[in-house]
Structures are given as structure tokens and as C-alpha cells.
Design a protein that fits this description.
The protein is an alpha+beta fold and 371 residues long. The protein has three domains: 46 residues, no CATH class; 162 residues, Threonyl-trna Synthetase, Chain A, domain 2 (Threonyl-tRNA Synthetase, Chain A, domain 2, 2-Layer Sandwich), CATH 3.30.980; 113 residues, Diaminopimelate Epimerase, Chain A, domain 1 (Roll). Helix content is 37%, strand content 23%. The chain has seven helices and 17 strands. The strands form five sheets. A five-stranded mixed beta sheet has the order 13-14-15-17-16, with helices on both faces. It has a four-stranded antiparallel beta sheet with strand order 6-7-12-11. The protein has a three-stranded antiparallel beta sheet with strand order 2-1-5, with no helix packed on it. Strand 6 and strand 7 form a beta hairpin. Helix 1 packs across helix 2, helix 3 packs across helix 4 and helix 4 runs parallel beside helix 5. The termini are far apart. The model has no long low-confidence stretch (mean pLDDT 92). It binds zinc ion. The site of zinc ion has 7 residues, from helix 1.
Length: 371
């Protein structure tokens, strides 16, 4: 089994203890393999004795996927290295099913992205051999400190005559086995200067294409439009624009409603009464608009306006607005009704929050504000 190496995660597998009496022992799952100097250490979750004989079995589905992603990265980096400013400066393999990335010094243009993907897939079809050599003069300035080169080896991985790279990971033996390389048009800026490009390769790329096609079909059914990606994107864009427009209209309607409620509260206050304003979907913007509509008309009134928002069993704000003494008296009563209300404020406005509205407390509050 191979330890974490060359940006490639460790192998998984099993150890099967081989008993001298030919009886079978259950296999031991191995999911932690580390390189220590020149040795490969497998961490077993159960003890084995020195001299025990075991058979190692690698999880080949995982290894194959890793080899496809890793070799795909060699090929992609080799192709990108032929463009100005697109030499790979880092890469990472995504977890099973996720995309991998390469970091390059600049963002390629959309045309370059298409060219790079086409060239990679052309080289896959040409089925170049991928070979491993261990020449004496291999570049070894990036070896880990604990690696003794006099006893170990430095491997050079070649893709035909296209690319030669020292690497300790596991690779496929021919480019055809990479099957497919797909680049995403999503990019990220990393370390405030490099561009991160996302790609996938091999069976992982085929699976991603397959689920993407299924997802497009589902979206086109939901949107009642055709299956073509451009048509779907245009429809989603129209839907997003319409949603934004509706949200704007809803916010304006809510503010109109707040003005109306403010006018109603004003009339009650001027008639010597309290006022109750409640909206399950009210926001602080709604509350503030009610308060600003009531405005100065609280002067000389003995009542207050109590404005509450939030659905039953959910949190919500409460604002009490009126003359200072009237607000203080009302808040004392409110605290006696709503047990978990917290808040503060001085003068004409007291602001609080209920962590969970209870129906009976809300009803009692409404009753308090209706006299
Ligand atoms: Zn490699």
C-alpha cells in the first residue's frame, strides 16, 4: 500500500492474517498508511505479533480513482506548462467525487480553457506511454528531510516525450486510462495572486458528467423548458430576476402596510388608548416604519404602541413606543406577561426580544395593548 505522496491521499486496504493451521481470520481494515523515512507504515486497528504472516489487499477502486486524478493532473499541468504564465504552482486532489484543483499564476481566458481541455483529451486518445525511471542524476532538491537518497530512489515519471517529472505518487501506465479530463469554468483567487482551476478526470469525470446531465434534465422539467444548457441558464437567470423583483415589491408592500398600521396606532393613541401592531413576518425595518409614522403624535398621550413580530414558537422582536413614563409602566406589565423577554432602552422607545413566542403570551400582550 502507498502512503500519502505527491499530493495523492494514502491507499486504503485490508490485511488478511494467514494462520498456520489454514483457518480464516477476519480481514483487518487499514485506512492509515504513512511514510517514515524509507519505510511504509500501516497502522492496524488491532495488534499483530512480530512474525505474523498477512496478505495485503489494496482497495483498488480507490487506488484507480487516485491514479486517474493524479495522472490527469500530470497531463493537465504538462499541457498548461506550454502556455505563458500557466505553469502549475500547486495542486490538490478532491475527496471522492469532488473536483481537484491546480494553481497557476494567472487566469486563463475562456478560449485557452477550451484549448487546454481539447489538447488534454487529444493526448488521451493518442495513448502516450507513461513510464517510470530512476536515473542516478534525477533532480532531488525537493526530497523530504527524512528521505535517505543513498538507500532510496528518485523516480522520474514521463508522459511520452511530452513531460518528465520527479514524483512518488502512483500513476497509470498509459494516457488512455485517464479516459477524460474536464475543466470547470469556476475559478478562485488564492494567496491573493494565483488562480485556482478546478478539474476532474477518469471515471470520476464520467460520473460527474452523468449526474450533471441528470440534474439538467430535472431542472428543465422544473422550469418547463428545453434540455439545452444555454436555455436552462437563461431560464434560471429570468427566474432569479423575477424573484429579486418580487422581493423588492414585497418589501415595499410591507412598508406601506407599516405606514397604514402606524396611522391606525396614531389614531388610537390620540383617542387615549394603547395600540397593538403585530406581523408574523415583520422585520425591524417594518417596526421602525411604524414608529416613524407614529412619530411625534405620542406627545401628551398616556397610551403606548406595542409592536411585535415573529411567528408562534419562533423568536421575534418587540418594541414599545410612547411617552417615557407610559413606556416604563407598559414594559413592567409586559415583563410580567412574557417570561423570557429581554431588552432595554431609555425614554420613548424600549426594544426587546422574545426567544420563543408562546401563543397565550402573545394573546395576553394583545389584550394589554387593547385597553
Ligand atoms: Zn505523480
Amino acid at each position: 500500500m502507498e502512503a500519502n505522496c505527491g499530493g495523492q491521499p494514502t491507499d486504503y486496504g485490508t490485511l488478511l492474517p494467514l494462520n498456520g493451521d489454514h483457518t480464516a481470520s477476519p480481514p483487518i481494515s487499514i485506512q492509515n498508511v504513512q511514510r517514515q523515512g524509507l519505510r511504509c507504515l500501516l497502522y492496524s486497528p488491532q495488534p499483530l505479533s512480530p512474525g505474523d504472516r498477512v496478505r495485503q489487499e489494496v482497495d483498488f477502486t480507490r487506488r484507480w480513482d487516485h491514479m486517474q486524478q493524479h495522472t490527469g493532473q500530470h497531463l493537465l499541468s504538462a499541457v498548461m506548462g506550454t502556455y505563458d504564465g500557466l505553469a502549475t504552482v500547486g495542486w490538490g486532489m478532491g475527496k471522492e467525487g469532488d473536483m481537484n484543483y491546480v494553481d497557476v499564476p494567472r487566469r486563463p481566458s475562456p478560449e485557452e480553457m477550451r484549448d487546454i481541455q481539447d489538447r488534454c483529451n487529444q493526448l488521451i486518445r493518442e495513448n502516450l506511454p507513461i513510464t517510470v525511471k530512476t536515473p542516478e542524476n534525477a533532480r532531488d532538491n525537493k526530497l523530504p528531510d527524512d528521505y535517505d537518497k543513498s538507500l532510496g530512489i528518485v523516480r522520474v515519471i514521463s508522459i511520452g516525450d511530452l513531460d518528465h517529472n520527479t514524483c512518488c505518487g502512483t500513476h497509470l501506465c498509459q494516457t488512455l486510462h485517464v479516459s477524460l479530463i474536464l475543466l470547470s469554468n469556476k475559478t478562485q483567487t488564492v494567496h491573493s495572486k494565483n488562480c485556482r482551476l478546478f478539474f476532474t478526470a477518469g471515471d470520476r469525470a464520467v460520473k460527474l458528467s452523468s449526474v450533471s446531465v441528470d440534474a439538467l434534465s430535472s431542472i428543465s422539467r422544473l422550469m418547463s423548458c428545453g434540455n439545452a444548457p444555454d436555455e436552462i441558464v437563461a431560464n434560471i437567470k429570468r427566474l432569479c430576476d423575477a424573484t429579486a423583483e418580487l422581493k423588492k415589491k414585497e418589501a415595499n408592500l410591507l412598508l406601506d402596510l407599516a405606514r397604514h398600521e402606524g396611522d391606525r396606532a396614531k389614531a388610537l393613541l390620540q383617542g387615549g388608548k394603547n395600540a397593538w401592531v403585530y406581523r408574523p413576518d415583520g422585520s425591524f425595518e417594518f417596526i421602525n416604519r411604524v414608529v416613524s409614522t407614529v412619530g411625534e403624535s405620542v406627545r401628551g398621550c398616556r397610551g403606548v404602541v406595542i409592536i411585535a413580530a415573529g411567528e408562534v414558537k419562533k423568536a421575534g422582536p418587540v418594541v414599545v413606543y410612547g411617552e417615557k413614563e407610559a413606556v416604563e409602566a407598559a414594559v413592567t406589565k409586559i415583563k410580567g406577561i412574557v417570561k423570557d423577554i429581554k431588552g432595554g432602552g431609555k425614554g420613548e422607545r424600549w426594544q426587546g426580544k422574545v426567544s420563543e413566542w408562546r401563543r397565550e403570551e402573545m394573546e395576553a400582550l394583545k389584550e394589554l395593548a387593547s385597553v
